Amino acid sequence: MSHTIYGDLAIIGGSANEALAKEISAYLKTPLVGRDIIDYPNENIFIRLHRSVRSQDVFIIQPTTSPVNRNIMELLIMIDTVKRASAGRITAVVPYYSYGRTDKKDQPRVGITARLIADMIGVAGADRVLLMDLHAPQIQGFFSIFVDEISAFPILSKYVLDRRPENPVVVAPDVGAAKRARNFAEVLNCPLAIIEKRRKDNRPRSEALNIIGRVRGKTAIIFDDEVHTAGTLIEAVNVLERHGVLGVTCCVTHAVLAPPAVERIRDSAIRELVVTNTVPLAPEKRLDKITVLSVASLLGDVIDSIHRGCSVGAAIDKYEEACGIQHGHKR
């Protein structure tokens, strides 16, 4: 049974993705709490709220996008500000979680930064965190506070389903993306292929080696959580072309598009790159072949469920049904 545990819903948007915060606010018909965010000449960040949030259920929208370290610090200061304003509960909504790739000590003398950021969010005063499509699911366990992780899976799936590609095959660009791609293939009712690759060193490049599965004569749909410099993505596209695919569409939740990603994508054989607005896309990155889908309604539904003390899983199931996904894939 739904019930209100905390006070009124309050939504605060940081500066990392103001457009997304406004969309969520409009969807929930809840005005954003006004705030001043000032970057002083000494690089200190100052934040002041325009009104009281005492005893309220506060959701702070702030993905840790570029400039990453500055936006992480802004998130922490925002949480601290709201905590000291006597909020009833604080949920950090972080649609894109930076440092997610640094999730293990896989070589000597390195840090686990994904754990460090999780600790910092908890120490700053957040009671909960809402995340989307983490690079590694085990990052959920790095937090000492309540965690909800959701996926843009239904949004991306619906987009592809509506377009009914010819003879599709879902392709995981590496073994790590195989589970996500498998679920995508299940919904599309099509086969799955996996690209085997090996990373040579710590630099952001890798070498694609082989394709596990049949792709010749099919429309390849690459599904992944993030496109960074697009090195792995373009390697995958090139390998698929050599194996005789009809065309390649890419579906990715987080469009980081760090240099030289835009140039690589522009000059590639990718027909369409479908992304979401978890990361704001600057005008110079908006290529004609890039389609941006909004996650505002999905985040809004989950925020509403958390606020009312309802099941997040049930809210996601309802959202997937609305998107026409009936296969009940395993999240």
Question: Would you kindly provide a brief summary of this structure?
Answer:
With 331 residues, this protein is of the alpha/beta class. The protein folds into two domains: 9-151 and 296-322, Rossmann fold (3-Layer(aba) Sandwich), CATH 3.40.50.2020; 153-293, Rossmann fold (3-Layer(aba) Sandwich), CATH 3.40.50.2020.
Spatial separation of the terminal alpha carbons: 24 Å
Main CATH class of the largest domain: Alpha Beta
The percent range for strand residues is 25-35%
Structure class = alpha/beta
CATH fold topology of the largest domain: Rossmann fold
Average pLDDT value?
A: 92
* Backbone shape: globular
Low-confidence stretches: none
> How many individual helices?
9
Descriptive overview:
The protein is an alpha/beta fold and 331 residues long. Helices cover 31% and strands 25% of the residues. It contains 9 helices and 14 strands. It has helices at residues 18-28, 68-84, 113-124, 153-163, 178-188, 231-242, 261-266, 296-308, 312-322; strands at 9-13, 35-39, 45-49, 57-61, 89-94, 128-132, 146-150, 168-172, 192-198, 207-212, 219-227, 247-255, 270-276, 290-293. Helix 4 (153-163) packs across helix 5 (178-188) and helix 8 (296-308) runs antiparallel to helix 9 (312-322). The chain is globular. The mean pLDDT is 92.
